[in-house]
């Protein structure tokens, strides 16, 4: 698990690293730039025949740019270096490295208000080292004009953060002039902006470049934001038991499907059955019985009295994991059935899709949600629950407030799905890809989560494990058959591989 930190926290970690490892700030910059250089050479080998235009500010982000320029120059890449003095005083590290470049006779050009004509070819590459974590106000003036010109380039690699974007909160940033990078090489610590859809087109694909910051210093920083990694899940996985039987592996219930939407029930059920549940029951209207008995013979079907949709859920105490929502529809009687269930149930629920939509239209039922439930809205469903937001930052505030209010977990789905806990901690998922943006992918997640709760995982562990394994199944599917063709069925198909990888 990596901590997502603010710029001021990162500055403290940098400082402690230098003190504890007896490094000067020039040495730390040299290490940072060397790791950037190594990553750049291996990951962007195909740029080797292009001219690399490196744009440096006169702070330490610019310093990183100068050292990277020196290393690329020595390695015989074609580099052109430019710098801009937007701050009245050069940082010491920038100044020292500028001297080194001058001594090595590496050509370097100063841009200023009167001189910023740039000639960059389509195949050329721009490295953006103008501003990093030191940006403290919106970019204006001639630096803004330079950024606008650079944005006409097709290949832009930003160092640490695309210039013009702030690490954590951009609500007071006009965002008029921000580098639109194709890739961002962020220095070791994930920043909140990397996970926000609004800034995705400025950040492009991103990578974290380890520079050996002091682990204790990182430990000492407090943050509510975390980036969840595969290694975190391994610790949560329950060992398999030789004398296990279907009873000890838990009995799950899915309340799912309605006329025309039985596919959702089939997907959730198959996902649950690939996620270790001992026994699975599916509550469904009469029209779904034959479909389910054929498509999912391993599951038992509990038949509703209604032909087309769910109207009445009787006893649920025997189930340890209960998932409700996929393909459920929002018929009047289904709404009543949900209200009845909420009054009846004491164990945490997995609540998805139409069950969320029903709750959104009956806000007074939210207080009936059992403590520790897992709600899995996509942003559209979440908006119905909490109203519109004006920024991603406000969205996270609403998420925290909502989780506290319903004393439950929410997985806000999308790229870097975000799990928020009732205590207000945020965990961004590191698996998953855009190939999963297909109908039915969310139904698969509901099945997985229901199975994990049934097996006795705590809600928090189930949410972390489920979110990670679901995304990993997507990543393996993408590698095996490609993002275009993969769909929800493939997530189920590759789920066993994902569980095996997490267990390795
Ligand atoms: N040992 C280390 O420290 C390491 C640091 N590392 C690297 O350092 C980077 C952070 O460097 P940094 O703190 O010098 O800030 P940076 O982003 O270069 O900005 C420079 C100055 O610009 C100014 N400014 C702000 N906003 C402005 C605006 N809108 N328009 C105009 N000016 C504006 C502001 O100064 P001000 O004008 O407020 O006095 C600010 O101080 C980090 O991203 C990483 O790449 C790595 O090498 C690892 C080791
Ligand atoms: N661009 C993306 N990157 C990563 N994961 C994604 C992306 N788009 C969708 N997903 C994942 O796919 C699932 C889609 O769920 P949802 O929108 O509820 O689909 P449905 O309701 O059709 O089942 C979520 O788990 C989400 O995190
Ligand atoms: K930058």
UniProtKB/TrEMBL annotation:
Primary role: Catalyzes the dehydration of the S-form of NAD(P)HX at the expense of ADP, which is converted to AMP. Together with NAD(P)HX epimerase, which catalyzes the epimerization of the S- and R-forms, the enzyme allows the repair of both epimers of NAD(P)HX, a damaged form of NAD(P)H that is a result of enzymatic or heat-dependent hydration.
Molecular function GO labels: ADP-dependent NAD(P)H-hydrate dehydratase activity; ATP binding; metal ion binding; NAD(P)HX epimerase activity
Organism of derivation: Acidiluteibacter ferrifornacis
Subunit and interaction comment: Homotetramer.
Family: Belongs to the NnrE/AIBP family. In the N-terminal section; belongs to the NnrE/AIBP family.
Co-factor binding details: Binds 1 potassium ion per subunit.
SUPFAM superfamilies for the chain: Ribokinase-like (SSF53613), YjeF N-terminal domain-like (SSF64153)
Residues at which AMP binds: 413-417, 442
Name the record gives this protein: Bifunctional NAD(P)H-hydrate repair enzyme
Binding site for (6S)-NADPHX: 60-64, 132-138, 160, 264, 327, 378, 443
InterPro entries in alphabetical order: Carbohydrate_kinase_pred_CS, CARKD, Nnr, Ribokinase-like, YjeF_N_dom, YjeF_N_dom_sf
Pfam families the UniProt entry points to: Carb_kinase, YjeF_N
Keywords: ATP-binding, Isomerase, Lyase, Metal-binding, Multifunctional enzyme, NAD, NADP, Nucleotide-binding, Potassium
